[in-house]
Design brief:
It comes from Sphingomonas mucosissima. This protein is an alpha/beta fold. The chain is about 35% helix and about 10% strand. Helix 3 packs antiparallel against helix 12. The mean pLDDT is about 90.
Length: about 525
């Protein structure tokens, strides 16, 4: 018996474009979403709440005297609102995330499974130490791995993010200088090829920042740096590999010169993903370096947290590390060393006294990130971590060499890049810029790469593919970027108004930055408009 007795057959209609907007404003399953205040009413509640039995309040003069002003939505309305908003976000689980110097790579689900184990997910920072030996063991073993991988002497685990880790390192340097009576050293030298947070961190820690120029090949001008060293220089903050995607091959010579002049070397470790298992910064004379666990060891990244930026320290700076820290004694017990026992414990077990500058956080750091990072390290092993760096560098060079015939690659002549490829807007017709390429990439289904950074490259486009992308994924991205670049060179005016297929068209970014609308106000309906 035939199931289709009507004779109907599916057909493929001719391709065309819609001639009118939809009633809802939706574009197929890309749903238009109003503000939450426009969905719900401040006059209603989404749930039924029983009247209080007593009107007595323990809030006193802190009790609210005006309406709360929040829209009343039911649970389905609330869930749908935030789910629809989430569909408009780009994420690493959707596609390649080419942000340069940000290492947006896949987070293995094994890490998430381990972080959700009750003994780790439910731990409380105020629990008795004897009840959290497993959690402290995670922290202690991760600390040992970080020390081993970097060739350093100690590590502060409590910093909550990369910039927080930078601050930790600079405060250690400041404490060490004051300890030896050289608190007058107030100048920190920062190369142009360093991360943008470096000068901000140094200034926040009370130092004066001076720039060191880059050479024509995108590396630190070593001669200029050495010429500036003197009795007022506290430290050099250098990023390696730098933001031009290049390895600072003179770092050991720079470290030796800085140390000879009485200063310290801070290395920004945000790009450690490119050299993990291949290079130990401690062997290059580095005194302090933060490690972004979300970059090198695949813990979640973005959205403001949770982050984690442990800071590894040389033997000269380790005594000044912040508290708390974990320590395993000969009996196998793991201790969380706080202020109360720090001096006694250090003298008894390590033969020395701490000169800690204080604390970075209220508690011990970000437990969930520690668990994820250690899971990543143990699941890869030493050989796997080495391959991480090799594959990251291979993918970046594949992007660089595949596009250098279409986009200007200012440092391609310097040889292979490291973890990221950098391009400029040179060769674009007048009126076309990097932002036009970036916006057009949104129409191609990609989050744009990092734009206009580093500042040493005009109209910079910084692409970091990471090691987790397949050749097929890279080829698709390369094809999309090539297509957009060729359209720009051909003077395609439609790029000036891209994106065209996103939920929102291009905004006036200057106006949005200068006059942001951060508070929703109900539109005032005049009698004339009502009529």
């Amino acid at each position: 018996m035939a199931l289709n007795q009507s004779g109907w057959r599916p057909t493929s209609p001719e391709q065309g474009s819609a001639t009118s907007a939809t009633f809802t404003g939706n574009k197929a399953l890309m749903l238009e979403e109003a503000l939450i205040f426009e969905i719900g009413s401040t006059d209603t509640s989404g749930v039924e709440v029983a009247e209080p039995v007593s009107t007595a309040s323990r809030l006193g003069n802190l009790a609210r005297t005006a309406p709360i002003g929040l829209p009343g939505l039911s649970e389905p309305e609330t869930v749908r609102h935030y789910t629809r908003l989430s569909r408009q976000n780009y994420a690493i689980d959707l596609g390649l995330f080419p942000l340069g110097s940000c290492t947006m790579k896949h987070n293995p689900r094994l890490n998430e499974k381990m972080a959700r184990l009750p003994g780790f997910a439910d731990v409380h920072p105020l629990q008795p130490v004897d009840t959290v030996q497993g959690a402290l063991g995670i922290m202690n073993e991760l600390a040992m791995w970080l020390i081993e991988l970097t060739g350093m002497h100690g590590v502060a685990m409590s910093p909550k993010a990369g910039a927080h880790g930078e601050l930790c390192g600079m405060l250690c340097i400041k404490a060490a200088l004051e300890k030896r009576g050289e608190g007058h050293r107030k100048v920190v030298l920062v190369p142009e090829s360093a991360h943008g947070t470096n000068p901000a961190t140094a200034a926040f820690a009370g130092f004066t920042v001076e720039d060191i120029p880059a050479t024509a090949e995108g590396r630190v001008d070593t001669d200029a740096l050495k010429a500036r060293l003197g009795p007022d220089v506290a430290a050099v903050m250098i990023t390696n590999p730098n933001t031009c995607g290049l390895f600072e091959r003179d770092l050991k010579a720079i470290s030796d010169a800085v140390h000879a002049a009485g200063g310290y070397v801070y290395c920004d470790g945000a790009n450690f993903n490119a050299i993990v298992g291949r290079v130990r910064p401690g062997d290059l004379g580095v005194d302090a370096m933060h490690i972004n666990l979300h970059k090198t060891f695949s813990t979640p990244h973005g959205g403001g947290g949770p982050g984690s930026g442990p800071t590894v320290l040389s033997e000269a700076l380790s005594p000044f590390a912040p508290l708390p820290y974990t320590a395993r004694t000969k009996d196998g017990h793991i201790h969380l060393i706080e202020e109360e026992r720090a001096d006694e414990f250090s003298a008894e077990h390590f033969g020395g006294k701490l000169d800690s500058f204080g604390r970075m956080t209220a508690f011990h750091g970000q437990m969930g990130m520690f668990t994820r990072a250690l899971t990543y390290i143990l699941s890869h092993g030493a050989d796997g971590l080495r391959q991480v760096a090799e594959d990251a560098v291979l993918n970046a060079n594949y992007v660089l060499r595949s596009l250098e015939d279409t986009l200007d690659a200012p440092f391609a002549f310097s040889g292979p890049c490291m973890h990221e490829a950098i391009f400029s807007d040179e060769g674009f017709p007048e009126g076309f810029s990097t932002i036009d390429v970036a916006k057009a990439l949104i129409d191609e289904g990609f989050h744009p790469m990092t734009m206009y950074f580093p500042l040493v490259v005009h109209g910079a486009m910084l692409v970091e593919p990471t090691e987790t992308e397949s050749k097929a994924a890279l080829d698709q991205f390369i094809g999309a970027l090539r297509s957009v670049a060729e359209r720009a060179k051909a003077g395609d005016q439609s790029l000036k108004t891209a994106p065209h297929f996103a939920p929102r068209s291009r905004l006036d970014e200057t106006l949005a930055a200068r006059k942001p609308k951060l508070v929703w106000k109900e539109p005032v309906v005049t009698s004339e408009a009502a009529e």
